[in-house]
Description:
Binding site for Zn(2+) 2: 133, 168, 393
Bound molecules: 2-acetamido-2-deoxy-beta-D-glucopyranose
CATH topology of the largest domain: Aminopeptidase
Cofactor: Zn(2+)
GO cellular component, one term: cytoplasm
Shape: globular
Amino acid sequence: MFFITFYILSSVSVMLCDNISNEYNREQYEQNPAVKILQKYIQIDTSDLKNLELSTDFWKRQADELGLSFAVYRPRGLPICVMTLNGKRPELPSIMLNSHADVVPTNTGKWTYPPFSGHIDENGYLHGRGAQDTKDVGVQYIEAIRKLIRNNVTLDRTVHITVMPDEETGGSRGMLPFVETEDFKSLNIGFAFDEGYPSRNDAMYVSYQDKRPWQAKYTIRGNGGHSSIVKNGNVIEGLQRLINNIMEFRKEQVQIMTTKDANDFGAYTSVNINMIEGGVAPNVIPKEIVAVVDMRLSVTADVNNVENMFNSWLNELGYNSTVEYLRRVEYSPATAVDNSNPYWIAMQETMMELGITVDAIVCPAASDLIAIRSKGIPALGFTTKRNVLSKAHDINEYIDLNTFIKGIDVYVALLKKICNLPDFSK
Ligand SMILES: *[C@@H]1O[C@H](CO)[C@@H](O)[C@H](O)[C@H]1NC(C)=O
Ligand SMILES: *[C@@H]1O[C@H](CO)[C@@H](O)[C@H](O)[C@H]1NC(C)=O
Ligand SMILES: *[C@@H]1O[C@H](CO)[C@@H](O)[C@H](O)[C@H]1NC(C)=O
């Protein structure tokens, strides 16, 4: 799905291409303290959750260096880091800057540079898993705070930099239980930023709603036996029906996608079959095949209709086939991006002052933001990555360091504005 989107956008981006000539050479990048920190963070292989303790140590060092208070919460064992810069008016609702330390596996395929090397190439690209998703954002937050402190800027509102442990696997041991705790409530969060979606043009995207992820595991059953037998009830007949049904639905959604604005991600439901498992030997007809389907529901999709569709696909499989939901988010509220939301107004003003266009979008994927918004807290997905090719979850993930460094100043400007918003609760 993403491939098709990018294909459409690529012709546009040629015309809109920014002046992104590097103002640094490679040695200057290597000496830049923010780059060094990002490099160290990427060198921690957090695709293995055991190494989250190392990333917690990493964040403690950053907090200590800046004199921020540091706390670790473990609602389900895995560490959640909270670094706090106290505001002058701590009674006001605070601002949360959230990102996640975990990264997806490096995937198959050969990386040009080892995925946990943090290698900087001659284009000024820093390579590694998490360079875009989303270690860059975590480091941009802390560097923005460093700049504010260094320039003696004081803020009215308290800022909490939070780092989650398991966003990539759904947040069930991180953000989801955390938002239910007294510790979370005591942070008194009024507004949150979290990871956003990179753009292929001059604008920066702000996502105000996430699509609802559904993942279903179909176990398709049929007649097994000797591989010389050609008879009805072969498990692959069921698999074929399932694939046909899903690809038919997928075609309809691609149709919707191509008739809409290229960044109207909320208009269609994405669907992909991402795992097929089964078989015991080349000459044995299997009795069981497993297919895992991943869907991100359009904002208008009705949950009951989607469930009925999943069931109708199941009903065509027969032979005691089953479907089991691995993930099924039914509710993903939107944050207002209009004049009713003072945080959004402040953000728009800041971006206008910086001369940067912002486009409000529905995020094509899902993140920990769903849990934050579900608590009634306004929260926006945002990244300063623009004019970039999204490499999240792909091999050869990298970040253009020019984009990374410039983005820190965007966060500085945003924090100066948003953290000094007056009390508008009364
Ligand atoms: C791009 O920006 C650099 C640095 O700001 C400047 O020196 C250069 O002239 C610009 N190039 C173009 C084509 O605008
Ligand atoms: C910040 O404050 C300190 C102490 O008052 C001062 O020495 C320093 O020059 C100030 N820095 C800036 C950038 O204003
Ligand atoms: C379905 O499962 C039941 C109970 O395990 C079994 O008796 C029946 O033979 C199965 N039917 C098919 C078509 O496999």
